[in-house]
């Protein structure tokens, strides 16, 4: 039996006819006015009865098939499909902290489907601070290009025009890297993983800043690597400790934030950078310079890769902190031999990275608007930082050292911040307790706060009640 859905198309409503047909048929299926198994009118008959083109009907039926309302039977036509009851997500339960706060807990909390409230412990800027229009415009422009370029694999080493643009960007930092010394990655997260997999074996030792970016601790443990922390001071790593740990453990890698260190937003001094390179030579380890916060620095900072010429330094960068976290475009700069090894490692793991994201980043960089966007972001951070420091001081908390740039404050709250984070979670707030930033995972009175989130009244109220 053929069912002819009866409805009128509003041709002057501004809603496309295809959208109206799909919506109207779907409503009738959901209301059981069109029963499962019923045959839909042929494309020609539907088009004639509703005064639309057969192409419009074909497009509408195809969308209804894709959405599960119809099914296509070869040689027989289209039929109403048996609909399964929709599985609704359960209502979000009240936030209950786990018995132990760990890295997995923080990452899960950051990516919850049901969003938390303000996230003063987050590692990214609010979306309103970023240039969404530039990303949208780049995507639209990309969609107008030859579609063949969007349908194939990208190059394992990365989109060549982007690597050429990165060459110019790094030259401004006095880092000389030809396009064949650059490898694109799925963010700095993948870059660190590739470096660890390529240059370490299970049982090897890796040194990191302490405190440092917590996600790599779990990644290194999964590779069977031993991780030791080098205490971080206001001007860079503790050189005495670095020397002693390197002599004792013979590390393969030392991962360091030279500029706008996470979580303290401090930067390495030129004198200390030279000493780090001297120790790397003496103890024969590679230095992995994570410069993900590069673009948030106003300029003039020392880069290990610039001093070393990429002989012993592997330089990492990306755009998730300053452009869009969802683009997941990062890169590695290294010697030609190491860059080729990393490109091969990446190819064996994932073939290539997403060419579309790399093309979007290239277009944004090449058009020149990115520089002005960074000026605005740095100005907003500077404007927010001083009031945030005053607020924390009034609450008896101390950001030591008090950074002059960047998005983070490394705050001494004067209490166990694991307990503070558990209390915050119960109120829908995400904090990043200091224990997560150390390889030892020991309780700490420190916590990382995002300058951009401290203007939120809810965050201020919570911090105020913590000190009572």
Structural commentary:
This protein has about 475 residues and is of the alpha/beta class. The protein has helices spanning about 15-30, 45-50, 55-65, 105-110, 130-145, 150, 160-170, 185-200, 215-220, 240-250, 270-285, 305-310, 335-350, 355-365, 370-395, 415-425, 455-465, and strands at about 70-75, 75-80, 180-185, 205-210, 225-235, 235, 255, 285-290, 315-320, 330-335, 400, 410, 430-435, 445-450. β8, α12 and β9 form a beta-alpha-beta unit.
Question: Rough shape?
Answer: globular
Average per-residue pLDDT, rounded, comes to: 90
Q: Which stretches of 5+ consecutive residues score pLDDT under 50?
A: none
Number of helices: 17
Largest β sheet strand count, sense and barrel closure: 8 strands, mixed
Beta percentage is 5-15%
Widest sheet, order of strands: 3-10-9-8-7-4-5-6
Q: Roughly what percent helix?
A: 40-55%
The helix/strand class is alpha/beta
Distance between the termini: 73 Å
| Total count of strands | 14
What is the alpha-carbon Rg in Å? 27 Å
Please describe the structure with a list of short key phrases separated by commas or semicolons:
468 residues; alpha/beta; 8-stranded mixed beta sheet; 4-stranded antiparallel beta sheet; 17 helices; 42% helix; globular
């Amino acid at each position: 039996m053929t069912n002819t859905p009866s409805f009128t198309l509003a041709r002057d409503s501004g809603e496309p006819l295809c959208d109206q047909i799909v919506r109207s048929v779907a409503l009738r299926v959901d209301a059981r006015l069109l029963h499962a198994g019923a045959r839909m009118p042929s494309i020609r008959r539907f088009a004639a009865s509703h005064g639309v083109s057969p192409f419009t009907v074909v497009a509408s039926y195809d969308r209804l098939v894709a959405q599960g309302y119809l099914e296509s039977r070869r040689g027989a036509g289209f039929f109403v499909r048996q609909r399964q009851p929709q599985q609704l997500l359960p209502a979000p339960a009240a936030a209950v902290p786990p018995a132990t706060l760990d890295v997995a807990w923080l990452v899960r909390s950051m990516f919850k489907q049901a969003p938390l409230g303000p996230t003063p412990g987050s590692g990214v800027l609010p979306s309103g601070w970023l240039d969404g229009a530039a990303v949208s415009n780049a995507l639209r422009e990309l969609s107008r290009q030859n579609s063949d370029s969007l349908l194939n694999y990208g190059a394992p080493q990365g989109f060549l025009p982007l690597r050429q643009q990165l060459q110019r960007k790094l030259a401004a930092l006095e880092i000389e890297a030809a396009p064949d010394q650059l490898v694109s990655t799925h963010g700095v997260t993948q870059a660190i993983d590739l470096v660890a997999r390529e240059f370490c074996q299970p049982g090897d030792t890796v040194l990191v800043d302490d405190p440092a970016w917590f996600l790599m601790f779990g990644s290194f443990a999964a590779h069977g690597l031993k991780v030791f922390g080098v205490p971080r001071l206001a001007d860079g790593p503790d050189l005495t400790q670095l020397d002693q740990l390197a002599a004792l453990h013979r590390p393969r890698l030392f991962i360091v934030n030279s500029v706008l260190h996470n979580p303290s937003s401090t930067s390495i001094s030129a004198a200390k950078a030279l000493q780090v390179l001297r120790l790397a030579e003496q103890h024969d380890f590679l230095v992995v310079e994570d410069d993900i916060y590069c673009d948030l620095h106003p300029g003039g900072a020392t880069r290990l890769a610039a001093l070393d010429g990429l002989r012993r330094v592997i330089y990492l960068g990306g755009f998730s902190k300053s452009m869009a976290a969802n683009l997941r475009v990062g890169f590695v700069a290294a010697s030609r031999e190491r860059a080729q090894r990393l490109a091969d490692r990446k190819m064996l793991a994932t073939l290539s990275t997403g060419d579309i994201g790399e093309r979007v980043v290239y277009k944004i960089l090449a058009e020149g608007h990115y520089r002005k966007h960074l000026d605005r972001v740095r100005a907003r951070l500077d404007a927010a930082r001083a009031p945030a420091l005053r607020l924390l001081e009034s609450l008896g908390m101390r950001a030591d050292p008090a950074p002059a740039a960047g998005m983070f404050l490394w705050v001494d709250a004067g209490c166990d911040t694991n307990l503070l984070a558990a209390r915050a979670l119960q109120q829908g707030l995400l904090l990043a307790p200091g224990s997560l930033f150390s390889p030892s995972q020991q309780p700490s009175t420190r916590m990382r706060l995002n300058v951009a989130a401290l203007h939120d009244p809810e965050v201020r109220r919570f911090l105020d009640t913590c000190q009572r």
